Amino acid sequence: MPTGRTAERPAVDVAASEAHASAATLHLDRIRWNVDAALGQFMDAQAGQAADECLPPLIEVIRGFVSGGKRLRPLFCVCGWVAAGGDVAAPAVFRVGAALELFHAFALIHDDVMDASAYRRGAPTVHRLLAQRVEERHGVATAERFGESAAILVGDICLVWSDELLHDSGVSPERLSGSRLFLNAMRTEIMAGQYLDVETGESGPSDELDRAWRVIRHKTAAYTVTRPLQIGAALAGAEESLLQACDAYGSPLGEAFQLRDDLLGVFGNPSVTGKSDLEDLRDGKRTVLVTLARQQATPGQGAALDELYGNPELGEEGADRLREIIRQTGAEDVVENMIRVRRDRALGALERAPVTEPARRSLAELAETATRRQR
Amino acid sequence: MPTGRTAERPAVDVAASEAHASAATLHLDRIRWNVDAALGQFMDAQAGQAADECLPPLIEVIRGFVSGGKRLRPLFCVCGWVAAGGDVAAPAVFRVGAALELFHAFALIHDDVMDASAYRRGAPTVHRLLAQRVEERHGVATAERFGESAAILVGDICLVWSDELLHDSGVSPERLSGSRLFLNAMRTEIMAGQYLDVETGESGPSDELDRAWRVIRHKTAAYTVTRPLQIGAALAGAEESLLQACDAYGSPLGEAFQLRDDLLGVFGNPSVTGKSDLEDLRDGKRTVLVTLARQQATPGQGAALDELYGNPELGEEGADRLREIIRQTGAEDVVENMIRVRRDRALGALERAPVTEPARRSLAELAETATRRQR
Question: Where is the segment annotated Disordered (chains A, B) (predicted)?
């Protein structure tokens, strides 16, 4: 049991020669690489000081899980930091980015338990993976129960370690303190968004669209874009005007980003999106797209939507019929237009934002890649 | 969405006239009262600034849940603070205590989901309570699934709010930083202890006792006594010798405390313990008591133990037979002796510890009440 009072702080290896080049142009791939290095070093440190021998195997599960993902939240966080004049070669900001990624792992692992999802990023979800390991010894039912319990705990570990990594990032306590308002908001908002998502049939049809928008705002716009940007910016000592600009850019962009994701979930090419084109249709999430389709549907289309959407047995034929109906209601075009309007609004806000030029260029690039038809 | 950078800090109402009296003697009931007041004020503030209308009903669920409990962790935290010379009238320490209680709520809510427990503190567990609310509308199976998902989220909210309350407690960033090592250790240890608890049948019989001790050490000794004491002491700027004394007192006492709890779970009087005398027997947790009984049992007793202990259908007659066997193996006496030895070791360490006198008296009182035969 540790009783000393200092903690090891592994240095992130940032090639000094690259630092000056990055001040002019942000290389998003290098940011990802540095965030991954910070994550790996933190996991090594945890494995090296594990309080119990049961932890190292769980650490390997977390490592495997976080190896996937686009690192969007760390990217926005680093952009916010650079936007406010932060040094892109400062190791601390990559550790903060890694902390956000670990928080995201927590959120996804718990979401997958709640949604009983079997796959994520082309691999078994954490609760399935853990269940599979004991299935032969204990039978399916016991293994499933164990997998869920263990995944809840693995998620909890990711959450507390995210906090640990944030506080050991090397950012000064004053700056950390200045970013807490945005961190606090982010964490509560994602919980609210997820709660709205799991609460079934609590709203009447007229409230459904409102609810779908609230989920997008909490779970994607605030959580994925605005808050990470604001956290990064606040850590670099941003003024109020920049913090507000993060919201002016982040809110419409985050909405556009989720609307694109919803469209890809229904119409995307599996070889490009990396997930089955049936998954989202079988899950039956009440997205803005589908809620709009329902509202515009003829009685016959509405009945077919109700029967097919969210049907866990849905096959390719039913999926094609479902896509056809969603198209026919005009919902696809409406959502494409919503994306365009929001992306343009975000880019307009970005033009006026008091940010450094490298950050402006990277944020424009992220707005483009996050909302285009094929990603 | 908040974009400002200051947070409201509700003052805890501590009667100034009581402050000097408390410096001489700690009134444990007053500490509890102040911790509860800090919790209530934090919940009021959260309800007042809720990011979504779905949150206030969840806040009421949390309020109801935290209204029970003995506040052991806050008590040890305040004792650690006073032991290191902290002012018992400082509102900050009660907020830190409240943060530990909120963390405890998180741990219990998730534990109850994992264990599928229906009752806690004489009331339905959070996942049952939330399921019951939608049962009529959605049927039992959907309601149960919803209750579990919502309880995972309510637990997550308690965890992030615990952190929020800790950071808004009013303790200086430097002192908070000095206590983080113990906070980090506490949070990871409870996860490890709970993981060992849910991992079924992974160890051979010879490892069972070792595993039961590891669960006690992580889940009770460190989590309930040593770490809260160290967190409080570190927040008041304790020296290394005092931080070590917290462990010398806390580890044996925490073990004694859990061993007493295990005995009460089997032999306790329900009208005194406040829980059914069948609950622990039906749950079948592999406690030190039962593991010892298994090791000492004759083949006939062993078979009966295997059949009865952890049997969800166990009735009063079977329970009496189970108690009789555990007694006959001598395990009850062995555990009573273990408790005595550990309590005495804790009291011995306390005598030698470099703590203030009011803290010494209160810690002696807590050691006594937490380990005596009837509580």
Answer: 356-375
Residue B102 and residue B158 in contact, taking contact as beta carbons nearer than 8 Å: yes
How many angstroms away from the CA of A27 is the closest CA of chain B? 29
- Report the alpha-carbon distance of residue A110 to residue A271 in Å, rounded: 27
- Say if the Cβ atoms of A54 and B194 lie within 8 Å: no
Q: Tell me the two tokens of residue B48.
A: 């007042």
Q: What is the CATH number of domain A26-177?
A: 1.10.600.10
Class of domain B239-375: mainly alpha
Tell me the sheet residues that pair with A120: A123
Answer for the pair B52, B207: CB distance below 8 angstroms, yes or no. Answer: no
- Predicted confidence at residue B13, as pLDDT, reads 36
Residue A275: the pLDDT is 65
Q: How far apart are CA B357 and CA B343, in angstroms?
A: 19
* Nearest-CA distance A51 → chain B (Å): 6
Start-to-end C-alpha separation, chain A: 47
Does the pLDDT at position B120 exceed 90?
A: no
Interface of B with A in 44-73 (CB under 8 A): 50-52, 54-55, 58
Query: pLDDT for A119-175, tens place per residue?
Result: 887 889 999 999 999 988 888 888 999 999 999 999 999 999 999 999 999 999 889
Rounded distance, CA B354 to CA A345, Å? 63
Given CB atoms, is A132 within the 8 Å cutoff of chain B?
Answer: no
Q: pLDDT tens, B230-257?
A: 999 999 999 999 999 999 999 999 999 9
In sequence order, what DSSP letters do the residues of B150-219 get, joined into one string? HHHHHHHHHHHHHHHHHHTSS--HHHHHHHHHHHHHHHHHHHHHHHHHHS-S-S-HHHHHHHHHHHIIII
Give the whole-angstrom CA distance, residue B115 versus residue A199.
22
Residue A8: CB atoms within 10 A of its CB come to 9
Q: How far is the CA of A357 from the CAs of A344, A352, A364, in angstroms?
A: 19, 12, 11
Contact A198 B150 (CB under 8 A): yes
Tell me if A209 sits within 8 A of A338, measured CB to CB: no
Q: Where are the domains of chain A?
A: 26-177
Residues B151-188 as b/e (b if ≥16 CB within 10 A, e otherwise) read: bbbbbbbbbbbbbbbbbbbebeeeebbbbbbbbbbbbb
Contact A142 B1 (CB under 8 A): no
Tokens at A177, concatenated? 């303190």
Give the Cα separation of B189 and B226 in Å (integer).
12
Confidence class of residue B8 from pLDDT cuts 50, 70 and 90? very low
CA B232 – CA B356 distance, rounded (Å): 13
pLDDT over threshold 70, residue B16: no
**Minimal Cβ distance to A2: which of B160, B181, B187:** B181
Question: Nearest-5° angle of CA B294, CA B284, CA B279?
Answer: 130
Contacts B188 to A, Cβ<8 Å? 51, 55, 157, 160-161
Mutate which of A59, A60, A108, A153 to test chain B, going by most B C-beta atoms within 10 A? A153
Rounded CA separation B182/A17 (Å): 38
Q: Are residues B128 and A173 in contact, defined by beta-carbon separation less than 8 angstroms?
A: no
What is the least distance, in Å, from the CA of A52 to any CA of chain B? 7
> ipTM score here?
0.91
Q: Which residue type does B14 have?
A: V
The A residues from 138 to 197 touching B (CB cutoff 8 Å) are 138, 142, 145-146, 148-150, 152-153, 156-157, 159-161, 163-164, 167, 173-174, 176-178, 180-181, 184-185, 187-189, 191-196
| Residue A100 half-sphere exposure toward CB, CA atoms < 13 A | 34
